[in-house]
Structure formats: C-alpha cells, structure tokens
Write a structure and sequence with these properties.
Rossmann fold; six-stranded mixed sheet; 24 helices
Length: about 750
C-alpha cells in the first residue's frame, strides 16, 4: 500500500463570511469547527474496507464542535499540551482549509520545523531554499534579499509593474501591452474561479444556489478570457488594441500608486533592522541564504514574516532558535507591533515569560475544544487556581448538604411509614425533589443568586447544571531517579584555568574558566549564541578532548548524564535510518544487557513514554516532546551524579517544562543547565517560584531555608553568563535580563 502525507480535514457550521468578498472582515468567527487528521491515503488499487460512519472515517479528530474566534488586532496565545493539535490548527488556518476564513485574508505563518531539512517534498523551508537557489543565475539570494522577497503582495505588485512597463516601452511590438493586460486579467479570473468553486462547494440552500450562479458567471468570464488570450495576433482589430493598451496604462498607474504607498515603509531598512535584531551581523546579510545552518535559516524565515503587514500573523515556537537577546528583542518588537498595527497575532510558545509579555488573550485547546481567557498566562493560572478552589468548596459544601438531607429523608420516610403519617411522606418527597431539581450551580452567569425563573438554561431543562471543578491541565509527570552513592566525598568536577581555542591561529573561545561542582549544586550558564556554552559543556563532559591550557579534574566515581543540544536531531536520524526502532528498543540497545525489559519500561513510563508508546510507536513517528523524553531516558538509565542539560526545553510545551522543572527539583545530584528559558533557570537553578505564574507545589521544598531536614546536603545555586570567553557570576537571571533589555531598547530606537 502506498501512502501520502497526512491530510487535514476541516468542517464547520455555515459561515456568514463570503469567500469572494474583496474586503473581508479581519475578524474570525467560526462556529462548530471540527478538524481531523487523516494520516495516510491508501492507493487506488487497494480495495476499500467496509465503510464506517463518516466522522470515524475522517481520521483522528483534534478539534470537535469548537468555536474559533479571533478579534482584529488582538495578540493571542494558543496553549495546550504537546500532541493536542496546536500546530495542525495553525496550519489549517494558514492554508485556508477552514471554511469561513476568506481566501483574500492575508495570513503569514512561521511553522515549527526541524533545523535540518530531510524531506524536501514536505518542507516549506526546503521550498524556500530551492527558490532562493534558483535566482541570480544559480548564485542564490542573499540573506537580505531572501527576507525582502517574503512580502508576496508587494512582490506581486512589483512584478506586474515590471511586465506592464516593459510591454508599454516596447515600441517594436504594438501588441505587447494587449497580450500583457490580457494575461494579467486571466490570472485574476483564474483566482476568482478557484474561490467561486470553493464557495459553491461550501454552501447549500438559497445561498448555495446563488453561489452556483456566481460560479457559472465566473466560468463564462474565464472562457471568454481564454479565448482572447489565444486569439490570433493578426485578427486583433485596432479598436481592441487601443482599448487594451489604455487599460494597460490605467492598471500601471494604479499599481504604481499602490506601490508608492507601500514604499512609505522602506522594506530594505526594515528587513535589515529585523535581521540585526534577530542576531545577524551586518556582514552576514550579504551571505547566500542557502549556506546558512538550519537555525539561522529559521531566523531568516521569521524575519520574512515580521516585515509583512498581514491580517493574521501566526508564530509557532518562534523562540526555538533564538538566544535570550533575540527573545527579548522579539518580545519588544511584537509589543510595538501591538501598538502600531492592527495585525492579529496567534502565538504558540513554551517560553512562559514570552507568552506573559506578548499575549492579551489566550485560546486554550483542551479536550478537543477551544476556550478563551482575557489576560495572559499568569492571570489565567491564577484565575484557574481560584476557580478550582471556589467550585471545589461549593461542591464540597453541597455534598455535605445533600448527605444531611438524604439522611433526614430516610429518617422521615421511615417514621412516616411506621406511623402512617402522610405529611411526613410528602415532606420526604418534597425534599427529594429539591435534591433532584435544585442542587447544582447556585450562582447565575453574572455571579448573583440563581433564580429558576430567570437563570434556567431552557424550557427543556428540569434541573440546574452540575458543579464541575476544573481539573489541572499539566503534562504527563516526570520522575528522575536519584544519584547513586559516591562512597567518599569530594567535588564532582573541577575546571581550573581552562583556556581553549579550536586552532592555534583561531581566536580564544574560552578564557581562564574556573568552575567547581559538588553533589547537590545547581549551576546555570546563560549567554548569547556563539559564546562557547556548548564547547564548555563538551570539555566538561569529555565529549571533546581538551587541547588548550588548564586542568579538568573529575571524581573517580563520577557519572555524567549529558543531554546535548542535538539529542533530538540524532534520534530523528536514527529513527529514519531504522524505521522499526522504538523507544524501548533504543533503551535496551543503549543499556546493552544491563537493563531488563521491565526496568526499561519503568524508566520510560516514569518519563512519560508508557506502554505501547514505548514499544509500538516507531522513533521516527514520535513528537519532539516525546523525543526529548527518550533522550532523557538514554541519559538516566544509568543514574548519573551530574546532569548536564543543554537547551532541553526546545521541543517541549510549557506544561511539560513545568513537569520537568518539578522533577529536577527532587533530584539529589548536581545539575548544570544551559538554557535561554528564563523560567527553567529561575526554578531549577535559583529555586524560585516564577515571578508571574503559580507553580507546582513541589517547588516548596526546593529552597534550603524552608527545609527542616538538617542532614540534607548544602545546595549551592549559581547563575553565570559566558561572555567574551569568561564566566561571570550573576545575582540571578534578572541581572542578565536587564542588561539585555537595555541593549534591545538601543537597537529598537536606533
């Protein structure tokens, strides 16, 4: 059986928006939205299986009967656990697969993708590479040119101006303007035909009849246009030549006017400003786009999105390949955009601080439905805790009341039957009716006292709604096994006066580094991309031999667990090379007989890869978050004394980041974290609750001052920045953050 890629199927209730509207509403208001993913299509030669119900045959439902509402100019954060379908919803929006999103609505999207390009047939980044390499005689676009080429509307107008100008300047061929204007008209009519066909397929009833009439009208126009386009040059009369030439002149003037309006914003200056803000150097803007590494290509693609002025801008994990300076720059840039532009932003990010700073409202994807909250993530979590406490107390009080009433009903019924007292039996029946009809939500939608004649949901309802206590939406929990006994004390690792360069003639990467880590220590290293953080970790873990000055001393019994920055990419390559490889087989091979299957399953389950996910799902089918868990399992199967984590949050949602931080807080070994994620460093290294968000109660025990256990190993907590090859101790993440904010303000004001 041959398979095609996954297809997205989207349906909704009848939309009030018209797809052919030249000026569609910038608002999105879609009711009854259902989105399903069909993983593969069988070949036509295969006999179809027995037909099931339509809903079942449409594939895996990610969203069912939900309402998608986006107000113009508002910045939204889309939140939900890994695997719930956030990226699929965004892709369906961007590709106009959702009925009700007009095909004239301009949507720009940065999709979450891997840094490396493996499957060129299904990768928008690969498409951009091929396009960039095809211009300029095969030399390819420069980084700056690639970003400037991202504004499709401006480029389309520029293209039309160029072809019209050439045709009107061609004095040797009087028919050139005629053929050009006819070709441009035909292009527009073909777009209208596509939209009319979509419109007709989506509508029914009276509006469907009108849509089919419009389709027939457009089909007639296209047929006439095709005839004019194919008309023999010798048969074109003078009157047609004069009329079409004048039409070409008029269209050129109109397009030039539009283009001049667009040029009010200098696109080259804006592109340059955005690229520099995202970390490019001035000399790097002229480099060919195709020579960039995956992470820098993604920055270039992000810049191409930011210079546009679309109706809806979609950013799926835009901070994945940015250092903290780039994250803070993007944070400030989007804040400015919120004040100066009416573009609607939909953002997915695992960075809690980034979401809190950017988003005005949240769209919560949970249990295949969408709910909305006005406020950022910190406000939502605070409100969620309040609602959980409020409804929990109301339910607990009502359950006590019901238990008391049921006891009195039993007693009253017993006495009534024993004495034959009809009044007591009627009283018992009345109280039972009250339990059946009047127990439930005791407040109205406005928070006031519930009144039956005013607040009952509908005539068909006989009782109030049940009290539902909100349940926590936190990713699968993670458990990290404790470090083994060292047997005798001493520092785990010590770096003394380390100076390193890759070649004798190359510049110094690390200069006079001194670092000592003991059991229980928490060390965080932050810094800009290219500052040498990963090099330092490779020297520390022994992944790279020291070829410079200085001394590295390790405890004789030290075990290091190293999560490298490219761990997920390595697993993806392994999975593609061996498509039968599973998480379970990966760990069994890694352990080389030192773990039995039960222990391997227990470890994977503790990290959130239980049961069949571990044994039946191929590695190449695992999501990014699941691959992080598998990479952690490879690190933890032989419990280490020192955990070294290099950018571990890249593929995780913020629920899982919270679960990871909670698990790390209970680890009794030492932890060295390199990360741009401010939340992770604050919680794991500094032992603080996040300044804006309410966290898992596990963090209560992280602060040594709050611990009553006098036998606990003293825990040293230190945050460093690596700058100009030197480790500089900070008072905390906030000190580094403030220094970067000052730089960003200068960059944005310059």
């Amino acid at each position: 059986m041959t398979e095609s890629g996954p297809s997205i199927l989207a349906t909704c209730k009848q939309t009030r928006f018209h797809l052919l509207d030249d000026r569609p509403s910038r608002e999105v208001d879609i009711q009854g939205l259902t989105i399903a993913v069909r993983s593969s299509q069988p070949s036509t030669s295969e006999k179809p299986k027995a037909a099931k119900s339509k809903s079942k045959s449409d594939g895996l439902e990610l969203v069912s009967n939900a309402d998608l509402r986006l107000k113009a100019g508002v910045h939204y954060g889309l939140i939900g656990r890994n695997g719930t379908g956030k990226s699929t919803i965004l892709k369906a929006m961007a590709e106009k697969l959702i009925p009700g999103i007009s095909y004239t609505t301009r949507i720009a999207i940065l999709q979450q993708t891997d840094a490396e390009i493996e499957d060129e047939d299904d990768n928008s980044l690969a498409e951009s590479l091929r396009e960039a390499a095809s211009v300029s005689g095969g030399k390819g676009r420069s980084v700056l040119e690639q970003v400037m080429a991202s504004d499709d509307l401006r480029n389309d107008i520029k293209r039309k101006i160029e072809v019209l100008s050439r045709s009107l300047e061609n004095e040797d061929d009087s028919l050139a303007p005629v053929l050009t204007i006819r070709k441009l008209r035909h292009e527009e009519l073909e777009k209208q035909l596509f939209l009319a066909q979509k419109n007709a397929s989506l509508r029914s009833g009276a509006r469907g009849l009108q849509a089919r009439k419009e389709l027939k009208s457009v089909e007639t126009k296209v047929a006439v246009s095709r005839g004019l386009l194919n008309e023999d040059k010798d048969s074109i009369n003078a009157e047609s030549i004069t009329a079409d030439t004048q039409a070409a002149v008029d269209l050129l003037e109109e397009l030039q006017s539009q283009y001049e309006t667009m040029k009010v914003v200098d696109i080259e200056q804006q592109a340059r400003k955005v690229l520099l803000g995202l970390g490019f150097k001035e000399e790097g803007l002229s480099k060919p786009f195709v020579t960039l590494s995956g992470g820098w290509r993604m920055r270039c693609m992000l810049a191409g999105i930011l210079i546009q002025n679309p109706d809806i801008m979609i950013l799926d994990e835009p901070t994945n390949f940015l250092d903290l300076l780039g994250v803070i720059w993007l944070e400030n840039y989007l804040k400015q955009m919120r004040e100066t532009s009416d573009t609607t932003l939909v953002l997915v990010s695992h960075d809690r601080a980034f979401i809190n700073a950017i988003c005005e409202e949240l769209v919560i994807l949970r249990d295949q439905t969408l709910s909305y909250f006005k406020g950022n993530l910190a406000a939502y979590e605070e409100n969620f805790e309040y609602q959980k406490l409020y409804w929990g107390r109301m339910r607990e009080a009502q359950e006590k009341q019901i238990a008391h009433m049921e006891a009195t009903i039993r007693e009253t019924t017993k006495m009534g039957k024993k004495t034959g007292d009809e009044n007591k039996l009627r009283m018992a029946k009345s109280r039972q009716k009250k339990i059946d009809d009047r127990m439930g939500v005791q407040v109205s939608a406005n928070g006031g006292r519930f009144k039956l004649n005013r607040d009952m949901v509908g005539w068909h309802e006989n009782s109030r709604a049940e009290i539902e206590v909100p349940k926590d939406e936190k990713g699968a929990s993670m458990f990290i096994p404790n470090a083994p006994d060292l047997r005798f004390p001493g520092p785990l690792i010590s770096l003394e006066n380390i100076t390193f360069r890759y070649k004798r003639t190359a510049p110094v990467v690390l200069s006079d580094i001194n670092l000592t880590i003991h059991l229980g220590d928490r060390v965080g290293i932050m810094g800009l991309n290219g500052s040498g953080k990963s090099t330092l970790l490779q020297l520390l873990t022994g992944e790279m031999e020291k070829a410079g000055v200085g001394k590295v001393t390790r405890h004789p019994r030290l075990k290091i667990g190293y999560y490298a920055q490219n761990s997920v990419g390595g697993l993806q390559k392994e999975g593609r090379a061996n498509q039968e490889q599973t998480a379970l087989s990966t760990i069994m091979r890694e352990a080389d007989g030192q773990l039995n299957e039960g222990d391997a399953r227990a470890l994977l389950g503790a990290l959130g890869l239980p049961g069949r996910i571990a044994s039946d799902v191929p590695v190449f089918r695992l999501s990014g978050g699941q691959l992080v868990r598998l990479a952690m399992a490879k690190v933890l199967w032989n419990p280490p004394h020192l955990l070294v984590l290099d950018e571990i949050t890249t593929h995780l949602d913020f629920h899982t980041v919270t679960a990871l931080a909670s698990a790390l807080s209970t680890f009794n070994g030492a932890i060295l974290v390199v990360s741009h994620d401010r939340f992770l460093v604050r919680s794991v290294v500094e032992g603080k609750r996040d300044g804006d968000a309410r966290l898992n109660e596990d963090f209560e025990a992280e602060d040594d001052e709050q611990s009553d256990d006098d036998t606990q190993i003293p825990r040293r907590r230190t945050v460093f920045i690596l700058k100009a090859g030197k480790l500089v101790e900070q008072t905390g993440v906030e000190q580094f953050e403030k220094s970067l904010e000052k730089r960003v303000k200068k960059m944005l004001s310059g």
